[in-house]
Specification:
Creatine Amidinohydrolase; 2 domains; five-stranded antiparallel sheet; 16 strands
Length: 392
């Protein structure tokens, strides 16, 4: 029996499967092996913390997809996927973390048993969850290397359905609550781990009647010199006057993320931070104005960077990326980026983390927005005031 708590309708899953098969046919693939848990979930509904061992969804040109994974996780598949019992296959536990017996040997045998080895086979070769050892084992037991199908399903996810955007809107309400918590309790002398504990409590409790899921990236909350780097987390040091702290946080609903950053300064704000704030806000407004259907990702980046440069600042990294359904270690979709040279055309239903962070010599300032492209422009999903926050 299919799971009774699927996040989307059977019709939506069938439309996704049809889109995947159409792209497979365009590329001449007859079998697609998906190991990215985001793509597995998007096509089947599977949702479990089992991606630390090999697992996959296998898509052929007819019938239902196959869920394949560790035998003890097959029950989790029965609880979360739309397919039936015959489409859920678990491999023996002797394959788990036992180098002489790689699980890909079992996958190759499954493909052969289902008559799926005669045509061209694609796999996500550049994924976090498909190791060199996995590729070597699968290739050896298939008798040939799978072709690279990295990103095939990721790009199909680029335009969100109304139901997906609904989950992101709900996630945005949780994001707002997380930032309210951070701004309310932050004060000089408060150990950072205590602050993050309360923020995470808010995230999981949820908002407006919606419970919160876990994020693909843990809360980023560096202060002072730690905030000169974008991806440090937290420690137990007390917050101190005269330091900026940026909070990069995401509420999550049914694995759909709404990440947003805001920066808090404790005490008097140096002039250079006011100048950075002004530049980021003006550049963000220019980028959001350019984020409309028919324009490209590159045009958004050019509008942002042109304004930022005119005001005396530079950002050498991208200023945004696609977001949506994600699992650790990344809440990005690994497709388009808001950067020079990316000529992807914006379409209604695309969703991004517009991420204009600046990292200075003694701290950082992040004022970001999760956005959805609408028929007329960019809508910010969160309602947190866009400014540098200050507390004594």
């Amino acid at each position: 029996m299919p799971a009774d708590n699927l996040p989307f309708t059977p019709e939506e899953y069938q439309a996704r499967l049809a889109a995947a098969r159409a792209e497979m046919a365009r590329r001449g693939l007859e079998v697609l092996i998906l190991t990215d848990p985001s793509n597995m979930a998007w096509l089947t509904g599977y949702d479990g913390w089992s991606f630390y061992v090999p697992q996959a969804v296998i898509v052929g040109m007819d019938g239902a997809p196959l869920w394949w994974g560790r035998a003890m996780d097959a029950q989790g598949a029965r609880r979360t996927v739309w397919m039936g019992e015959d489409d859920i296959i678990g491999y023996d536990d002797t394959y788990v973390q036992n180098p002489p017996h790689h699980p890909m040997q079992a996958l190759a045998a499954l493909l052969a048993g289902r008559g799926l080895t005669g045509g061209r086979i694609g796999a996500e070769l550049d994924g976090y969850y498909y190791s060199a050892a996995a590729h070597r084992s699968l290739s050896a037991h298939l008798g040939r290397e799978p072709e690279d199908a990295t990103g095939l399903v990721n790009w199909l996810r680029a335009v969100k359905s109304p139901a997906e955007i609904g989950y992101m809107r709900a996630a945005a309400r949780i994001t707002e609550a997380m930032h309210r918590t951070a701004l309310e309790i932050a004060r000089p002398g408060l150990p950072k781990n205590e602050l993050v504990a309360e923020v995470w409590r808010t995230a999981i409790r949820g908002a407006e009647g919606q419970w919160g899921d876990y994020p693909a990236i843990v809360p980023m909350a560096p202060s002072g010199l730690d905030a000169t780097a974008p991806h440090l987390t937290w420690d137990d040091r007390p917050m101190a006057p005269g330091e900026p702290t940026f909070f990069e946080l995401a509420g999550v609903v049914r694995r759909y993320h709404a990440p947003l950053s805001r920066t808090l300064f404790l005490g008097r704000v140096p002039q250079k931070y006011r100048e950075a704030e002004k530049a980021v806000l003006e550049a963000t407004a220019a980028g959001l104005e350019a984020a409309r259907p028919g324009n490209t990702c590159a045009q958004v980046a050019e509008a942002f960077n042109g304004t930022l440069n005119r005001l005396g600042f530079e950002k050498d990294s991208r200023c945004g990326y696609a977001i949506g359904l994600s699992y650790p270690p990344d809440w990005g979709e690994r497709t388009m980026s808001l950067r020079r040279g990316d000529d992807t055309v914006l379409r209604p239903g695309m969703t991004f983390h517009f991420m204009p962070g600046l990292w200075l010599d003694d701290g950082g300032i992040e004022i970001t927005e999760p956005i959805v492209i609408t028929e007329t422009g960019a809508e910010c999903l969160c309602r947190v005031p866009r400014r540098l926050f200050v507390k004594d």
